[in-house]
Amino acid sequence: MDIMQWLTNIKMEVAAKVAAFMLILLPSILGYQLRQFQVLDVEEQNMVSVPTAATPIHCAIACLEHGYCQSFSWTAGVQCRISECLNPNLLNNGHLSERLYVEKGLTANLLLARGKPASMSSTHPNFPARFAVDGIPLSHSMAHSKEDGEYQPWLRVDLESLKCIWAVKLVNRYIDCCWNRTANALITVALSEQEIFYESDKTGNFCGYHDGQLSRYNTTITCITAITGRFVQVLLNTKTILNLYEVEVHGV
Q1: Can you tell me the distance from the alpha carbon of 49 to that of 248, in angstroms, rounded to the nearest whole number?
Q2: What rounded mean pLDDT belongs to the chain?
Q3: What are phi and psi of 197, to 5 degrees?
């Protein structure tokens, strides 16, 4: 091996080490955490391709510059994909199909709906929709639809801005009576109120469904894949009375 070839090899090794070091250092400087995850296939629905990223560093920068990016993955062949909305609870430490991810320092919020505007298909005069998002899980502060019941009663919350949503927790009326009224709960998410009202059966709006009666106390319905949206709706797919103590929206 001649001296020029040796120097070229040294430069390539140094460049590779610098790139690896920067990949670790860059997130650390910005307060991010470097982790390895096994990513479930469901997350592919929320990935955006960034074909111009030639290295992991370029991919990291693309993620940081993207307003909704939560993580990125880079593979050989100049492929960079950034995730706009994902459920961190579905990411597991694993050994198969591992990808390198940098997670932004975003904190999951279990109370996205707390204190937000809420509405219902019908309302009992003493128990308005806003009682479902007031943080008081008691009978005197529940959301209650009209007393004679109706087909597919619903409760809707306006989060007032776009959020990444991955689950909805329903706190049932468990203290005095009537918990068995809550059944066949359909959770939908949409960008606009018109969309969730008129197109709630759209595949892109579907979060999750609980078939049959819910637990007497509380039930968490996890979205089949995390969804970006502003409006969250709980619809009971039967003729019944909607009486819920609380509706919690989980996301970031």
Answers
A1: 32
A2: 75
A3: -80, -45
